[in-house]
Write a structure and sequence with these properties.
128 residues, alpha+beta, Ribosomal Protein S5, domain 2, 5-stranded mixed sheet, 4 helices, 5 strands, elongated
């Protein structure tokens, strides 16, 4: 089996992955994923598609992650892994889609407007 290459995005984070048969090692920017994401919740988010399909420990994943924060990066990686698993076996589409893992989350940060301190916050109004 050859290497499968997919991409996942969330907010401003971009995850490019290279997946192939192996021992289940996940390497992010040349570091182990448990070292890169020290929080257990983020580690679970990364492993979620593998757990749902029952393939945990069967594929080696090399990841290039850039942009965004930790949660955005974890969710971008989750989308990329889900897309790669569907490429491997089309039968994985239904369980992954039911959990909402094949949908790119479109929510982005709203831009800051001129004459305001933030996107929606206004300076205090003074009548006199």
């Amino acid at each position: 089996m050859d290497i499968i290459n997919t991409i996942g995005r969330r907010k401003t984070a971009v995850a490019r992955i290279y997946m192939q048969k192996g021992s289940g090692q996940i390497t992010i920017n040349k570091r182990d994923y448990k070292e890169y994401f020290p929080l257990a919740t983020l580690q679970y988010i990364v492993r979620q598609p593998l757990i749902i399909t029952g393939l945990e420990g069967e594929y080696d994943i090399k990841v290039n992650l850039d942009g965004g924060g930790t949660s955005g990066q974890a969710e971008a990686l989750r989308l990329a892994i889900s897309r790669a698993l569907v490429e491997i076996n089309e039968e994985f589409r239904k369980p992954l889609k039911d959990k909402g893992l094949l949908r790119r989350d479109p929510r982005m940060v709203e831009r800051k407007k001129p004459g305001q301190p933030k996107a929606r916050k206004k300076f205090q109004f003074s009548k006199r």
